[in-house]
Structure formats: structure tokens, C-alpha cells
């Protein structure tokens, strides 16, 4: 493998470090660090190919929308708390034609629920175990409840083609499988902290049911 080629692979340490950085004071979440971690998670879906197409294209679109909001250097979009307060106070969430951060980040939040549950179950498998069953279980517990029947059916069928844990890790991590396996427990801990903080902020503003 040529020097630097591992950069095209998935690195859970990047996810861990950025989610850790996202945990700022006052039980808040830094949006830029959140998106930096999420971009690395999105790379996982890209490396897996068409099996995750039911979620990957939607995630990329949502990440790009939030990056555009951040690039405007509006201080209201530095953290999740400031974003929700700003959009609620200015009635930006109520406008159906408005591309707002609250609705967009909620989609990423739901996606993160699936990703962390899948990676958690993946960590409990042996190398020779098929990953399809745990992926289907993670999906049914999380994202499936937000998807129409047609997408749910297609997603479950696509997951039947998923490989063993050993092959999956080699596909997405290249030569760095052990490094990713070693950091997985700590990455899941910090991801849970970010997820729970985000969930609580949406609960406080009663925004979990945004269409």
C-alpha cells in the first residue's frame, strides 16, 4: 500500500476525537466538530457501497446544508443550543419552504442513532460472524421507524448481502483494522454523550417530531 493511501479509509479515531471536541460547556454540542466527525462516518457508508445507499445520499445532502449554514459565519450556528434557540425565536422552523438547521440536524441525529447501534453490535461479533443480522436489527431499532415501508423493505433486502465482520472491517479500514477495533469502545462512549446531549436539546425545545 502506498504511503498515505490509508487516508481513503475509515478512521474511528477521527470520529472519536471530533465528537470529543464537540462536547462543549453547558451540555452543548459544537456543530463544526459534530460535522467533522459525521463526515468520517459518512466515509464508512461510501466504502460500503450501494448496500447503504438508502441512507448515505440523504446524509451527504444534510451535511452539506449545515456546512453552508456554518460558512455564513453566523454566530447563532456555532452550537446546537444556539441554533435551536435562534431558529425557534425567529420562527424559522415553522416555514415549510425554509431550509433550517434544526430540521436538517435532526435527520443526522436519527442517522447517528443507527450508526452507533450498528457499530456497537459489530464490536460484539467474532470475525467470522455475518454482519447482516446485526445491521438489520440496528436499523429496525432506529432509522426504520422514520422511513416509509418501501425504503424499509429495500434496506433490509440490501443488508442480506453484507459480509462477515472481518471482511467488512478490511473493506472500510484497510490495513488499520486493529487500530479501529481498539478505539471502538471509547468512540462509542463519546458518541453516546454527543447523541444524548443532542437528544436532550431537541426534547427541551419539543422538536423531535419535526416533519
UniProtKB/TrEMBL annotation:
Pfam family of the protein (one): GLTP
Residue intervals of the Glycolipid transfer protein domain: 29-173
Name the record gives this protein: Ceramide-1-phosphate transfer protein
Primary gene name: LOC107074666
Amino acid at each position: 500500500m502506498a504511503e498515505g493511501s490509508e487516508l481513503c479509509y475509515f478512521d474511528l479515531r477521527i470520529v472519536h476525537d471530533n465528537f470529543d471536541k464537540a462536547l462543549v460547556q453547558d451540555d452543548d454540542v459544537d456543530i463544526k466538530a459534530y460535522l467533522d466527525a459525521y463526515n468520517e462516518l459518512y466515509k464508512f457508508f461510501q466504502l460500503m457501497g450501494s448496500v447503504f445507499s438508502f441512507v448515505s445520499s440523504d446524509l451527504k445532502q444534510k451535511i452539506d446544508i449545515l456546512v453552508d449554514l456554518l460558512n455564513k459565519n453566523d454566530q447563532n450556528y456555532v452550537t446546537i443550543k444556539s441554533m435551536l434557540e435562534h431558529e425557534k425565536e425567529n420562527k424559522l422552523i415553522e416555514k415549510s419552504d425554509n431550509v433550517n438547521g434544526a430540521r436538517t440536524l435532526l435527520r443526522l441525529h436519527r442517522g447517528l442513532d443507527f450508526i452507533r447501534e450498528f457499530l456497537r453490535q459489530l464490536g460484539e461479533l467474532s470475525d467470522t460472524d455475518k454482519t447482516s443480522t446485526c445491521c438489520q436489527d440496528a436499523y429496525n431499532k432506529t432509522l426504520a421507524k422514520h422511513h416509509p415501508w418501501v425504503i424499509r423493505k429495500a434496506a433490509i433486502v440490501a443488508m442480506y448481502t453484507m459480509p462477515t465482520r472481518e471482511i467488512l472491517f478490511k473493506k472500510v479500514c484497510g490495513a488499520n483494522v486493529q487500530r479501529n477495533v481498539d478505539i471502538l469502545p471509547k468512540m462509542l462512549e463519546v458518541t453516546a454523550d454527543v447523541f444524548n446531549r443532542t437528544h436532550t436539546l431537541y426534547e427541551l425545545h419539543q422538536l423531535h417530531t419535526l416533519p
